[in-house]
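Exercise 7b. Backbone tokens:
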């Protein structure tokens, strides 16, 4: 017993020499804050502001195509608000404001797409589609889905595509713009000549094939579902394959597939009475090209928010309680002139909501660069969605579809007059 007591005393004396026996050493430093990064493609925001916890929004700098900010230790909730550069199309310019509300449980690195039209240059070439029965047009498709029609005559063409390196798809389509044949030419330089300047001859080996679509759980009083299917390359080219009744779709030739490519499917249906209530199922897969099944969720009834300058949306729906990944989304949009539109979209993840059933669009007008509200008397359109799935819902909502995953959604839409 004496020996044991001496061991304890000696051990304590050693500890005293190092840090003081029975006392306390300097406390460890607190954990560092969590760094959140948003990376933008197809344009960058003109302004961004972040909120952590229940604090106020404050501007954060843009570093190239990234926005980075810190969430303090002990805080999990954060929001990022940003305005993308206006999207300019012939006769219409759209300004879009986004607010993303999430927690550190949802991740720390996010990708978002501003959907701007890329800089383009011309590519030249010619296509012979005479071997493809039923072809009514040929489309030249490059990065970000940029696509133009060149006809079936086989005449030489010069057409714009995004400047740089493109995976270029030459797609013969039928009268409904569904793909009958696809020839993929990887890593084409724009500007330049496709296929080294030689005529591109579409042959039976380029033909697409039909695969079946099975739709389960179509809600009562809803119209038959439709499916939009496309093929996406790892380099960013989007090939529309099919858009029509959800009975079958077209797949690309197996020889086209490369690592990183994937199929994306959007199957949805609307109510027969108003076509303002929707249910849908989004899925993407690297092992696509076969039959697919889409199970639709039960419908959600929502009459819309009370008219307000910055309205509050209520999401009462129990259909996705068993799904681990989810989000709620609301959008308001209005014409500011005959040729200009403004929109504000807010997305909140399930973990951010933590059981809450409402989302209020925040007033960010005190921060320079954020959109002013609609003027009194303006007609404001609204859209409300609830998402749930096994895949990363936030990726689908930020317009950066993952290569694998699925998410179901319910939607309602309508309009009100700005107070």
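Sequence design result:
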């Amino acid at each position: 017993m004496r020996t044991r007591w001496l061991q304890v005393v000696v051990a304590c004396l050693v500890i005293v020499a190092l840090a003081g026996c029975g006392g306390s050493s300097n406390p460890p430093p607190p954990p560092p804050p969590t760094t959140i990064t948003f990376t933008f493609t197809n344009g960058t925001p003109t302004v961004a502001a972040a909120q952590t916890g229940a604090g106020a929004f404050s501007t954060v700098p843009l570093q190239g195509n990234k926005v980075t900010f810190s969430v303090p230790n002990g805080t999990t909730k954060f929001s990022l608000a940003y305005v993308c550069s206006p999207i300019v199309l012939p006769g219409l310019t759209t300004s879009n404001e986004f607010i993303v509300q999430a927690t550190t449980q949802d991740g720390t690195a996010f990708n978002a797409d501003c959907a701007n039209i890329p800089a383009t240059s011309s590519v030249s070439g010619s296509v012979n589609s005479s071997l493809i029965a039923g072809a009514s047009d040929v489309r030249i498709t490059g990065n970000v889905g940029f696509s133009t029609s060149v006809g079936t005559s086989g005449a030489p063409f010069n057409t714009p595509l995004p400047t740089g390196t493109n995976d270029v798809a030459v797609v013969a389509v039928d009268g409904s713009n569904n793909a009958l044949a696809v020839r993929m030419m990887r890593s084409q330089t724009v500007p330049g000549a496709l296929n080294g300047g030689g005529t591109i001859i579409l042959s039976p080996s380029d033909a697409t094939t039909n695969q079946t679509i099975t739709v389960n759980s179509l809600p009562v009083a809803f119209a038959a579902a439709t499916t939009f299917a496309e093929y996406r390359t790892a380099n960013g080219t989007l090939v529309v394959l099919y858009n029509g009744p959800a009975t079958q779709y077209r797949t690309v030739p197996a020889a086209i597939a490369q690592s990183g490519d994937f199929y994306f499917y959007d199957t949805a249906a609307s109510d027969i009475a108003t076509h303002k209530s929707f249910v849908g199922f989004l899925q993407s897969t690297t092992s696509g090209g076969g039959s697919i099944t889409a199970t639709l969720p039960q419908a959600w009834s929502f009459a819309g928010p009370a008219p307000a300058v910055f309205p509050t949306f209520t999401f009462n729906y129990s259909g996705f309680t068993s799904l681990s990944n989810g989000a709620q989304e609301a959008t308001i949009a209005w014409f500011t002139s005959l040729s200009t539109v403004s929109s504000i979209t807010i997305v909140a993840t399930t973990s951010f909501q933590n059981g809450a059933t409402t989302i209020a669009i925040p007033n960010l007008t005190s921060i320079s660069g954020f959109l002013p509200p609609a003027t009194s008397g303006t007609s404001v359109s609204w859209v409300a969605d609830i998402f749930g799935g096994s895949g990363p819902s936030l990726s689908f909502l930020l317009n950066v579809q993952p290569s694998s995953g699925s998410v179901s959604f319910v939607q309602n839409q309508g309009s009100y007059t700005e107070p």
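Instructor comment: Residues 1-23 have pLDDT under 50 and may be disordered. The two ends are 86 Å apart (CA to CA).
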